[in-house]
Design brief:
336 residues, alpha/beta, pyruvate-formate lyase- activating enzyme, eight-stranded mixed β-sheet, five-stranded mixed β-sheet, 13 helices, 18 strands, 38% helix
Amino acid sequence: MKPFIPLRVYYEEVVKEYKQGKNLLKKYEDMDIPLKPIKAHHKIEELRQRPNKEFTKMKKYLILGTRKTIRITPNDKSADFIVPFTSSGCTASCLYCYLVCHFNTNSYLRVYMNRDEMIKKVKRKIKKVKEHKVYELGCNSDMVLENTITGNLKWVIEEFGKLENATATFATKFDFVDDLLTAKHNGHTQMRISINPKEIIRKVELGTSSFKKRINAANKMFKAGYKIGLNIAPVILEDGWEVMYENMFMEVNKLLLPKLKKQLFIEVIFMTYGVSNYYINTESMPKAVNLLDKGKMRPKGIGKYTYRNKYRNPAEKIIRGYINKYLPEASISYIV
């Protein structure tokens, strides 16, 4: 899988005040990629007015700006605190993407230049909290993907490496980790590699790394001293899911390093699917699989669906059984 090269770049003028912004604009200008100035990254009218059918084309755009609001919020799942960091959105087109529920067709990749401002706020929070906590980076983006453009993930990993009482964590569906292997992390960063059965990755997680490449990335990062987790997300209960997920766990057991399996932690998240996902997928990718199974799913909140308990609860029991059978030394952080 090749690193992302944008079809077009939109940028706020303030980007030119940052060294990274100047470098990126020059890089893309030298590549003859169209550059267009905008007033604000979240109000690009010509993109907001595009029809759903242009969703996949818009995913090829890159937006450069600054993050205006940096709000660190408590969390009780993968971290103690969620830190919106140097990007939002993504270049992939996963059919269930929760970002689509928030941004609709505007879930393209946005990269923010004011990383120094962000890390200063994180450091103030760490100093205030005093005790050791885990901080999730890139909760609404994929930091490994973004790192291929900016190098920000390696940078922030090394920043956390200098800190006391703080661990950084991030999840990814990409295998572009070679740049991170030499980072001076000092054991202060963990990576959760997101996986699904090969069949689901191929037809649902469009534009992401393959199953084997993800597992290989986990092994490489573990060898480099990072703590590694599996983020099994989202679990999709399509026909034949039991066999697909058991085969997946068998492959994980076969491919993961023995020492890694002994220290592995696992997160499991069942799929939540949005009505906005359904309409955008139907219009922009008409041949894509339909994940909205109203027979198995019930409404959850506004415009979202989740699995009915009579399907979800037995499925959780089965997934737990697979973990106990194939990864008996791993710990389960949570299942939701």
